[in-house]
Amino acid sequence: MMSTVSTRQSDIEVERQAFLYGDCWVLALALHRMFGFRMVFAAYWPEDEPGLVLEEWCWDHVFVETHAGYPLDVEGRPNLSKWRSAPDGYVRGFHLTDDPQEIATLLYSSEEPRERYYDVPVLPAIVRLAWQWPEAFSRMPKATLNDLPDALQPRIP
Hints:
The chain has 157 residues and is an alpha+beta fold. It has helices at residues 9-20, 24-35, 100-107, 123-132, 148-151; strands at residues 38-46, 59-65, 71-72, 90-97. The longest helix has 12 residues, at 9-20. The radius of gyration is 16 Å and the shape is globular.
C-alpha cells in the first residue's frame, strides 16, 4: 500500500502529533536507515550518576542530526531549548549515535520491538521534510523506495 502526501492541515497536524509525542523514534529511525543521519536521544539521568548509562536511560525525544550538522525532526529544525530542561534531581543531555547496538539498546527494552502509539505512515513525513528542508537531504538515501517497507521495520541488529 502506497502512502500519499496530504496537504490538508488536519493530516499534517496528525503527523506532527504522532512524530513529536510518542513515535518520534519511528521517524528518526527511518531517517537514520534511509539517509545515514545520526540519531539523537534527548535524555536525562539522576544527578548522582556520572553520565548517561545506556541500559538505564530515560529519553523523551528522538530526532536526527543531518550531515550538515543540524537537528531535524517532524517540525524541521526543532527548538532544542524545550528539550534542555530536566526534572528535579536529574541532568539533561543529548546522546548522538549511529551505532546499531546502541540504538537497539536505547529503543528496545527486551527482544521485542518497541510498540508504536500511532498508526501514521512515516513516508509522507519524510517527503514533507525533504520538500521543506532540501539541504538536509543532499546525499542519496541508503535505502531505495523499493526497500522502504523493510528499512522501516523495527528490528534488533
